[in-house]
Amino acid sequence: MYTQIQLPYAFSALEPHIDALTMETHYTKHHAGYTKNLNDAAQKAGVGDREITELLSNLDSIEDEALRAAIRNNGGGFYNHNLYFGALSPDGGGQPDGAFRSVITNTFGDFDTFRDKITALAAGRFGSGWAWLSVDKDNKLILSSTPNQDNPLMQGDGTTPILGIDVWEHAYYLKYKNLRTEYLKALFNVISWQKVAENYDRVVRVGNINRKSA
Question: Are residues 52 and 136 in the same domain?
Answer without folding.
Answer: no
